[in-house]
Write a structure and sequence with these properties.
417 residues; alpha+beta; 4 domains; five-stranded antiparallel sheet; four-stranded parallel sheet; 23 strands; purine biosynthesis; EC 6.3.4.13
Length: 417
């Protein structure tokens, strides 16, 4: 197939690597892609991937058989809509269904209608209103910006003043949700969805805070591992039955079928599993470890979701080998980031057994050198026969990468190794 992957990040790099590794020999293009994807031998044309008209024109010109939308911004912008209207198979929800991620309030309403287990939430639009709700719920406080915030719109804190300051920051941009604090282990579980049926992938756990021990501010994700040996054997079946399928069927009943990747952000509490959030696309960095273990052809499920034929597909098969990813970030991330610094050691890191590198924010300098261009720069992905081996390989490779001021956590997957 001729496949277009839209997006510029490490998630898209992981998707591309999975697609080009298939025996079918697909013609894969990633727009706009990044320097690492280009170095993988994949065409990365310049394209405003958040502009529905520009993407539709590009797809019409090039004649792609399947379009896979990676990030949330083009989904919420409605990039899928004109493509689907033109009969192009698209993996990614339309603009209305993408509000499952684009609006926390929309997601809560859908969950309530579908009787999906989640925490209490109250929508506020002023600091005064927020103060009353915070006092009702008590600490720790959970404050979420309603719209997209690149992983930085959520604050969990016991500091009431900090919670109110977060409301003051985001309220001018839209409503803010104050939510009940849920205590437990978090799980990321992805589902392919075709508007009616769902197919589960393997669970993963990510690390959102910048520092070891889950300290410091939230980030887009500093690492992840898969599978999760500590979840019950029927965990995926339970979440399919109580969360994913009811949500997709509710959206179908409302006339906004969800076609693409349903990301269920879950928390395992003493009272059972609860949904923290939905996303409308593959999560980053969990995608990198889930796909590293996927033995079935990814394209089969992407196309089946786009064509409404998931029920005809066999369950995806995953390697028993665990996978771990360690993210390398620039100095200052997730605040004011220092960019433009040289990166070395990538070749040596990629030669560690079981390791491959995904690029998030890199460029090539005039002499071919690698340069960091953003906050999360690279992901070091490793597989091994055991968690201990996968983890040791990931950190051995990460140690070989040199970037002045680089940040990375040292405790990724430590609890299972």
């Amino acid at each position: 197939m001729k496949i277009l992957v839209l997006g510029p990040g490490a998630r898209e790099h992981a998707l591309v690597l999975s697609l080009i590794s298939e025996e079918a020999g697909h013609d894969v293009v990633c727009a706009p892609g990044n320097a690492g994807i280009s170095a993988s031998g994949v065409e990365t044309p310049e394209l405003d991937y958040t502009d529905p008209d520009a993407v539709a024109a590009f797809v019409q010109e090039r004649g792609f058989d399947l379009v896979v939308i990676g990030p949330e911004a083009p989904l919420v912008a409605g990039v899928a809509d004109p493509l689907r209207a033109a009969g192009v198979p698209v993996f990614g929800p339309n603009q209305d269904a993408a509000q499952l991620e684009g609006s926390k309030a929309f997601a809560k309403r859908v969950m309530d209608a579908a009787e999906v287990p989640t925490g209490r939430a109250v929508r506020v639009d002023t600091v005064d209103a927020a103060a009353a709700v915070l006092d009702e719920f008590g600490a720790p406080y959970v404050v979420k910006a309603d719209g997209l915030a690149a992983g930085k719109g959520v604050l969990v804190t016991s500091d009431r003043d900090a919670a109110l300051a977060h409301v003051a920051t985001w309220a001018p941009h839209g409503d803010v949700l104050i939510e009940e604090f849920l205590d437990g282990q978090e799980v990321s579980l992805f589902f392919f969805a075709d508007g009616h049926d769902v197919v589960a992938l393997s669970p993963a756990q990510d690390y959102k805070r910048i520092f070891d021990g889950d300290e410091g501010p939230n980030t887009g994700g500093m690492g992840a591992y898969s599978p999760l040996p500590w979840v019950p054997s029927d965990f995926v079946e339970e979440i399919t039955r109580t969360v994913a399928l009811p949500t997709v069927r509710q959206l179908e009943a409302e006339g906004t079928p969800f076609i693409g990747l349903l990301y269920c952000g879950l928390i395992v509490t003493e009272r059972g599993v609860r949904v923290i959030e939905f996303n409308a696309r593959f999560g980053d960095p969990e995608t990198q470890v889930v796909l590293a273990r996927l033995d079935s052809p990814l394209s089969r499920y992407l196309l089946a979701a786009a064509n409404g034929t998931l029920a005809e597909q066999p369950a995806p098969e995953f390697s028993a080998d665990p996978a771990v990813i360690v993210v390398v970030a620039s100095e200052g991330y997730p605040g004011d980031v220092t960019t433009g610094r040289m990166i070395s050691g990538l070749r040596a890191a990629g030669e560690v057994p079981g390791v491959h590198i995904v690029h998030a924010a890199t460029a090539r300098g005039p002499e071919g050198e690698w340069v960091a261009t953003g906050g999360r720069v690279l992901g070091v992905v490793a597989r091994g026969e055991t968690f201990a081996e996968a983890r040791e390989r990931a950190y051995t490779a990460a140690d070989l990468i040199e970037l002045e001021g680089a940040q990375r956590r040292s405790d990724i997957a430590a609890r299972v190794a």
